[in-house]
Amino acid sequence: MTKRLTFFLLHLPLALIAQPRTDAVLTKLLTTNHNPVFREVMQHPDRYRLQIIYTQIDRDRANKPTFTNYYFNVDSTVYFNPASTVKLPLALLSLEKLNGLKNPQLTRETAMQFDSAHSGQTKEWTDPTAQSGYPSIAHLIRKAMLVSENDPYSRMYEFVGQQAINQSLHAKGYVDTRITHRFVRLTPEQNRHTNPVRFIRPDGSTIYTQPAAYNPTPFDTRRTDTLGIGYYSGDTLIRKPFDFTGRNKLPLESLQQILKSVLFPQSGPARQRFNLTPDDYRFMKQYLSQFPGETNYPKYDSAQYYDSYVKYFFMDSLHHTLPTGVRVFNKVGWAYGFLTDASYVADFTHKVEYMLSATIYVNHDGILNDDKYEYDSIGTPFLYQLGQTIYQHELARKRKNAPDLSAFRIYYEKRQPDNRPTVKDVAN
User: Fold this and answer.
1) Domains and CATH numbers, the chain
2) What is the distance between the alpha carbons of residues 342 and 355, in angstroms, rounded to a whole number?
3) Sheet holding 206-210: strands in order across?
4) Is the pLDDT at 364 greater than 80, yes or no?
């Protein structure tokens, strides 16, 4: 190799020369599943843009955890649309910002209202699904975590602000992330503007007012991210790849690390943690794992939003409940043919714990926005098979020390009967 070529390679950005990471241990484990759908995807990982991270957790005698990651086809330079998984960092940033205001009158349950000050913005002054009748940071998080509602994410985006969202995530080390838009149809310029927000007392008087904000900082779009052979814009088929370059981006490793920072805050560098109180951590654990049917506010329809509704690794067409003693602390997302789940699984019956994250793309015709994705025939069946493969392996895996999982035992709600109608058909 010439000195000139060596110099060139050494000074290339790592993102340009990185190779997908695949570990033999995980590859061998995945070959044990012979389900036809599972085998189809595993034989064509690039076609399905498949990425998997499996994390074994082992405890010492003092119950201190050690994490061992195994990868399959993981590459942060390969774009996938994070969809609703971005609701997790937005929830954490909302709590962090609230704590940073250092106003004892402001808690996550304090009523808040969203006004409008720019084209495309909408007001939200009340919320009939909340016990108080008003939005609050806590209620936005509940709705975003329990069934992955979209409007709460957009409201948290407006509270934190586009510039602060990205600056904070980058400062924490998540440099390859970008959060650029709400989950409503707005232009990039409209998404730079965020609404005025106010927090109010029960009598309606104002505690704190946040003015409208604007993000003047441009995003780095030097690396283009396009996908497919065409897409629909309204009823018109555009015969060229769909451009995701300016859309949200959250690599799988970053997503898993953000989840890990909530569940195991002492396991990573201090700079990657969010400024949460001990009760914030408890609150996040609760609503990352509580079932919609256990929750009183919102009162979700438990038949439509069943226990495993947003638990892909335990969700199939036959089983709408989790195994006895199992709780899954996770965040999923689905859009544009992508399905993603980042999970921590705790089995209190068998004293088993592990983390599992995966993303898959199911869009055989290559056309986006046509609502013809193989979510039900390939996507969710694959993720269920993946989840069960890892779960069964963990049940059989020998541990030197059984984990004490008491930190993850949560006091969950119990649905109280009343005459309120259930919440159905939310946008998620």
Assistant:
1) 18-408 (3.40.710.10)
2) 8
3) 112-114, 197-200, 206-210
4) yes
